[in-house]
Structures are given as C-alpha cells and as structure tokens.
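Field log, afternoon session.

UNIT: design team B
ACTIVITY: writing a sequence onto a fixed backbone
BACKBONE:
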C-alpha cells in the first residue's frame, strides 16, 4: 500500500507524514512525479520505466485494471525499483482519464507539486523528460505540453484525424495557444489541476487529454508547447475505440463549445491582456 501524506508548505518545502512509518518526509516546493496510466502494456512498460528512471524523476504506475500478465509485470517493476517506482492499482478499468485522475489524487497525497504524464506504450521520448522538467521549473504555473513530431510509423488516419480536434480546441479557447491537445506527454502544475477536478467533471476516457487542457486554459493557466518525437507504438496495443471514443470526443467538443460561448468575453480579454506573468 502506498503511503499517504498530508502536505503543508513550509519555507519552500513540503512537510508530509508517511502513514506507513509515521515519519516525516520533506519535499522541495518544486517536486515533480511521473504518472503513467497502464492498461495491458506488459511488453512496453518496462522500457518506459527504464527511460523514466534515467531522468531521475520518481514514477507512479497506475494499473488501470490490467489483466494478470501486465499486473505481474507492474508488481515486479515496483518491487525492483522501489522507492523510485510505486504502484497504484485500480480494481476496475477506469479509462485513461480515470487512471490519471487517480494518479493526480495520489500525487497530491504524496506531497508532490507537479505531475508529468506519459503514455505506457513507448510512443513518447523519455529522454525529453529533463527538458520538460526544466521548462516547468522555470515556469511552474504553466502546463508544458508536447507537440508530436512523427516518424513514418504514425497511422495516417490518426495523423489527419487529429486536426478535427485541433480546430475544435482553437474554437473553444478562441486561441491558438494549445498547439496539440491530444499528446499524452505533458507536465501539469498539480494545485490548479486539483482545484479543477474538485469543481468540475472531466472526461475519464480518451476525451480526457483535450478536455483538461481546455478547462485549465479557461482558468488562465498558460500552455507551453514543446516539440517531441513520437513513434507508434512499441507493443502494437491501442485502446482507442474508433466508434465509442469518437462519439465521446464529439460530445466533449459540443459541451466545451457551449461552455466557451458564455466565457467568450473573458477569453477575448485574456487574449488582449496576454498570459499572466
């Protein structure tokens, strides 16, 4: 069982109580945690974890109801690399968004300040983690979001299909600041994310990535885009359901469009005033 912590900032550090030992752990004010939502990526997750470990950032694996083979791999990784790698197990599959929401809550309990999200299938370049962390350290209130730089492995339907979401996101934010809302490689400041998910409902499946960025943008959070290499994927496993997930994403865009309409005056003023310092 992962330790739970109650976080109180003290002079630039976070004082947290470990429930399992009763001892206090102090974290710096900038304390990132990598969170990886995992659902049956047994063949790829080991290499992803090794890449994360090379970055020097601790890692939380969120087992989103994986079947036995993958669950055993995750258990072995957590044992072999403790305490840098910890495991949070969800008994029933919640979807990518549901797994990330659970990961945010666990990161907050553990006293971390930022969460770096990266996919479990090996498509993202873990060597870019230090670059994301450095940008976040310099601008800790912003979201650092990847812009995919694809190689020849990208399915053309995926590549061109993304543009429909890009256009809707630009409409729903009245801005071009979010260059790519679908890339699952991004680094969030945890405090505004925690406030957001406590006050609003966020999509729990493949609609999660775009929706949380738009809603954070609506709240004045700057989104900084970073090019990063993307390769599709090392284990050949995709959990994108063409019909169900496209329906979810379409409904999400419709909800966001309605939300944009009454926010439009403030969003336009936000464009004129520019990002907050």
């Amino acid at each position: 069982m992962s330790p739970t912590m109650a976080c109180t900032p003290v002079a630039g550090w976070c004082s947290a109580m470990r429930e399992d030992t009763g001892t206090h752990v102090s974290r710096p004010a900038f304390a990132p945690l990598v969170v990886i939502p995992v659902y049956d990526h047994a063949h790829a997750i080991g290499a992803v974890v090794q890449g994360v470990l090379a970055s020097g950032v601790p890692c939380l694996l969120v087992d989103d109801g994986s079947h036995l083979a993958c669950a055993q791999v995750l258990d072995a990784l957590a044992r072999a690399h403790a305490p840098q790698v910890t495991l949070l197990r969800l008994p029933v599959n919640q979807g990518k968004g549901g797994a990330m929401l659970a990961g945010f809550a666990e990161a907050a309990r553990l006293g971390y300040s930022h969460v770096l999200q990266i996919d479990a299938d090996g498509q993202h370049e873990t060597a870019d983690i230090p670059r994301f962390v450095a940008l976040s350290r310099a601008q800790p209130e912003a979201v650092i979001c990847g812009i995919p730089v694809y190689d020849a492995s990208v399915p053309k339907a995926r590549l061109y299909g993304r543009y429909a979401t890009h256009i809707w996101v630009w409409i729903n934010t009245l801005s071009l600041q979010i260059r790519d809302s679908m890339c699952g490689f991004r680094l969030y400041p945890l405090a505004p994310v925690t406030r957001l998910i406590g006050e609003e409902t966020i999509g729990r499946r493949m609609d999660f990535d775009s929706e949380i960025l738009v809603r954070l943008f609506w709240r004045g959070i700057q989104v900084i885009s970073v090019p990063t290499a993307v390769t599709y994927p090392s284990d050949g496993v995709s959990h994108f359901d063409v019909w169900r997930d496209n329906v979810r994403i379409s409904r999400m865009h419709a909800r966001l469009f309605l939300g944009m309409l009454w926010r439009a005056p403030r969003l336009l003023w936000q464009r004129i005033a520019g990002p907050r310092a």
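LOG NOTE: The two ends are 40 Å apart (CA to CA).
NEXT ACTIVITY: expression trials, pending approval
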